[in-house]
User: What shape does this take?
Amino acid sequence: MKIIFDVKHLYYLPQYLPVLTELTKRGFTCSFVFYRQDDTWLSNIYKAVVTTQKLTAHWHDNWQQALDFYLDQAADWVVFGNAVSNIDKIHTVSKTVLMQHGIGPKQCYYDVSQNLTTVRFVEGQHRLKRLCDQYPKGNFIDTGYAKLDPAFNGTANKIKLADLGLDPNKPTLLYAPTFYPSSIEHFSSHFAEDFSDYNIIIKPHFFSSISTKHIKHQRLFEHWKQSNNVYLTTMTDYNLLPFMIVADVMLSDASSAIFEFAALNKPIVWCDFYKLRWSYRGIFSFRFKKRIDSDIEFFHEITSRAKNYQALNKIVAQAIKTPQEKSETRQNITKKLAGKTDGKASIRIANYLENKEDSK
Assistant: This one.
């Protein structure tokens, strides 16, 4: 069986790689489509990741080239991490899969199924029901979230705090904001000093790190990085999971990382304060509400909410002191929004791909 994974962005890989491991065990031929980057620095990062992961890579300049490649290859399955155009053309030669790259509270989680793939693997009965109700002609299978498998089956990369230049005797905070709407610009430039009793791992969203629109984000990251209690992840640190495993508390905003960390049953501080563009404020606030799905309401149940930066210190201290608070709620919500956390989501996905191919 031939399977091709479409990698529009590096942060799709953590969702793909556990499935790749399982498919490779079964002797399937797997390869990856990457898109050439105009920036030499970024291009070298992509190539380094391909080399490190020992991936079979096909490089294309744009979606049209990739589409022509898919039509020529006629693979058994083509796997996507987001919606693509011309899906019907691909269906003339291949079956398609959607494995959404995140399980966050943004409306796009549901909207991406407007162009239906042959199958979409989803996470939990809550989202399965919503997708089935919204797209009755769709084929949705609850497998759980493959990205989390390594945390539960013991195959995740082990990170030592000392190797990051951090103090193993201090509690560790993981700040993992999304790029928009984000809390970053409402954080103090003295973040590192304000939390000097903690290690701080900062894991920016991919777009915060590369986009010229987010230059203010990048300046803050570089400023915080100068403190000896801070580790700023690099672009090759595209997988958040190893940092989630080593962290005691997560700080985040409108990111799917909150649901992922909740699945590990650790305390989360929701930074519910955002820097919004003028086009999302006042009479245009409906745009913000449209971007954020109602699933964000679950944040109220599984996190400790901070309405501003000044509230963080006290809330973080409490989270460190009582990590078991909200534990049962986190586990219940995880079943709804991440599905099974038995480390076998990738096995269920591989079983489906194999059996549906055999029975075609």
